[in-house]
Amino acid sequence: MICMVKLNKTILYYKIVLWAIFSVLGLDGINTAHTRHIIGGDMRYICLGKNSTNDSVQYRVICKMYRDSESNGANFDFSARFGIYREIGNNVWDYVRLVQVNVKDIKEVPPNNDDPCIIVPPNLGVEEGTYEFTVWLPVINQTYMIAYQRCCRNPTISNLFNPDDAGAAFTITISALAQQTCNNSPSFTGFPPVILCVNEPLTFDHSATDAENDQIVYEFCSPLSSGGQLNTNDCRGVIPFPPNCLPPFKTVNFLLPGFSFSRPMAGDPVVGIHPQTGLITGTPRITGQFVVGVCIKEYRNGILLSSTQRDFQFNVQQCSRVVTPRIAANIIQNDTFIIRSCEPGNITLQNLSLGGTAINSYDWELYLKDTIFRSTQRNARALVPDRGSFFGKLVLNKLVGCKDSLVIRVDILPEVKSDFDFQYDTCVAGPVQFINTSFVGAGPLTSVGWFVEENLVSSETSPVVLLPKTGVNMVKLEISDSNLCKDTLEQTINWSPVPALLILQPDETEACVPASIGFNNLSKPVDETYKIQWIFGDKDTSNLFSPEAKFDEVGTYDVSLQIVSPIGCVTKKVFEKVIQIHPNPIAGFLTSPDSLSNFSNQVTTTNVSEGSVSSQWYIDNVIASFENEPVFTMKDTGIHIIRQVAINQFGCSDTADVTIDVEPLITLFMPDAFTPNKDGLNDEFMPVGFFKGIKSYEMSIYNRWGDNIFMSNDMETGWDGKWGEVDSPAGNYLYKLNFTEPRGKIIQKSGYFLLIK
Questions:
Q1: What does DSSP assign to residue 242?
Q2: What's the whole-model pTM score?
Q3: E runs forming strands in 404-539
Q4: pLDDT tens profile 277-315
Q5: What is the CATH number of domain 504-582?
Q6: Could you tell me which CATH number the domain at 667-755 has?
Q7: Class of the domain covering 331-412
Q8: What class is the 589-663 domain?
C-alpha cells in the first residue's frame, strides 16, 4: 500500500538539477499544495501474541513509504493517523479506534536501476520512511481493517482521470481466523523499479514471503481513493479523520477505454502479474506515469486470513543514451523550429526530444519584446502578448549529461477579425445586402463563407442574399487569410417583410352551384407569425393561410387577400372576378308506352329538361345513348332504371331517373291430338307457344283407366305415344300440366287429347 504525504502549501521553485529528476519520473512541474512525490509503499502486521485468557491479540503494524528525496517536495507526514475498523455486515464497517504514530527510520534507498544502458541522473534519490505501532485488539468473529488515508496523487499520472483530485487509502485486513491463530501477514520481498524503458520487456519479481507458508494469491487491483483538497475532516479533506471516513473506500477512476486496474499500462504483450508467483511481465509501449495496484490475499486451507495491496507508480520513459532536441512546430526551416499562432497569448512549447532518461534537464528561453521567458519544465507555456516574430532556444542537459539545443522562432501572425453589417427594407420582401467590414492584417482575404442557418449561401466578399425564411435568421461569416488564420462572427437578423407579390391559386376558377373551392396562398415570404385576412365576395371571410370557401349562389365573385407582417407592414390585393359560379340545368324526361313486356319492349323518351344543351342516357348505370330523345329496346325483362344526365353549356349537370317494368309474359297451348307415326310431323305430344322463364314445369299423361303412363319435367321432351316399350292404342288421353310463371304465379292445366294412328 502507498501511504501518501502532503506538500507544503507554497509554490515550489526547483533547481535545474531537480527538474532532471522530474523528467525522469514523468513529472512536468508541480505547484499545487497537495501534490505528492511518493514512489510507493506497503503495509503489514506481525502477531506478538495473545493475553492469558486468549481473548485479545497484540499486533505490530508496519507501514513503509517511499518518496523522491531530491525533488524538494513534501516530506513524510511527521505524525500519521491510522484508523481501525471492524466489519459488521456485508462490507459494512464500524469504527473501532484511532492510532497516531510518528515517522521513524528515514533512510536513503540505493538506486534500483542496475541496467548500464540507462543513465540515472546523479540527483535521483529514493527515501524510505516507516510508521510502526503496536495495538491490542479483542479477538472477535469479525474482520478488522487497518487503514491510512491521504490526499493527493500526482497530477502527471497518465492512466487516471483527474489524478490530482484523487487521494489514496491503504488498507490491510485481519480475519477472525488470523486473530485466533495469531497469524502474520505476508511481506513483500522487494520494491518495484521506479523507471521502466518504453518498448523494453519488463520482468519484476513482486512476490511476498509468509512466516506460516500460507498460500498467497496475487492480482492487479484498483487502487483505493480517499481524501481531497478541502480543509475538512471528512472524506474530502486533505487528511481524512478516520472516525468520519469509514470503509469501504472508493476506487480511482482509470482513463477508459485505454486503461483499467487489470490493464494499468496496456503494453504488447500486456503488462500483467502471475497469480501464483507474483511475477510482473510485459512490454510497455507508451511513455508516461502509471499507477499500479497489486493485491495479495493470504489463504489457509481455503480460508482467507488477510488481504492487503501495494499502490505504486511506474514511470515509462525513453531510455536512449543519445539526446536529440525536438519540439512540435508548424515549420522546420534551416534547423529553426517555427511555431505559428494566429493570436497572442499562451503559446505551448511541446517537447518531443529524443533521449529518454538521458535527458535530465530542459532550459527554455524565448526573447520577447520587453523580457525573456525562461522555463525548466519539459513542456513550457510562454505568454507572448505581442504580434511579431520572437526567437529563442531549448537546451537539453545544460549542466549535466549530454547537452544539445535547437533554435525556436515564434511567429504571432497579423490579426484577422471577422465583422459585417447588413441593410434591407424592413417591409419589402427583397434581398439583404451584406457588407463585409472584416480586418485582415496579412493582406486580402483568401476565403470567405457566408452561412445562413448553417447553410453556405455565398463565397463573395459582400453578397446580396435572399433569406430563406421569415423571422430570426442566424447569419455567420467565416474568413481566413493567406496564413490560414481564421475568424468567425455570428449575428441574428429578424427579417419579417410582407410579400412583394400576393399570389393565390384556387383549386378551380369556375364551378357549378353549390361549390366548395380551396385557395392556396403562394405568397412569399410568409409564416405563421403573419396575420392573414381573406374576403370571398362580399361576406365570407377566413384567417387561415390556405382556406376553403363555399359558394351557394350563381354569380361572379371577387377575392381579397390581406397580409400583415409581425412588425406591422401591410399588403393587400383584390383579385377581381376570379371565381365564377354557374347554374345547373334541370333534368327531366317522359317514357312511353306505359306498359312493357317481352312482346312489347321498345321505350320512347321525350326530353323535357330545362337549360341543357346535351344529355347522356344510362340504363342500369351503363351508358346507352347521347341522343336528345333516344328510343331504347329493352333486352331483358324486369325492373330497369333509365337515367338522364342533362348538361348545360357550362358543363354543369343534373340527373333524372325513371323506373320501368318489362313484364315477362308466356303463351302456352296444348294440342288436341297428335300422330306418333314417326313421319316427322306432330310425332310428340307437348305444349307449344312462348314460355321462356317458366319454372317448376311438370307434365303427366294418363290413359282412360287412370294409369300414369308418362311424366316429364322438361318442356322440350314430349310424349311419343309409348307406355314403356309398347305403343299405346289410339284413343283419348288425359294430360295434367303444372308450372310456375317467371314472376312466381303457379299454373295448373288439364285436358283431353286424341292419339291418332
A1: G
A2: 0.42
A3: 404-412, 416-417, 420-423, 432-436, 439-440, 447-452, 455-458, 464-465, 471-480, 486-495, 504-506, 510-512, 515-521, 531-536
A4: 999 999 999 988 899 999 999 999 999 999 998 988 888
A5: 2.60.40.10
A6: 2.60.40
A7: mainly beta
A8: mainly beta
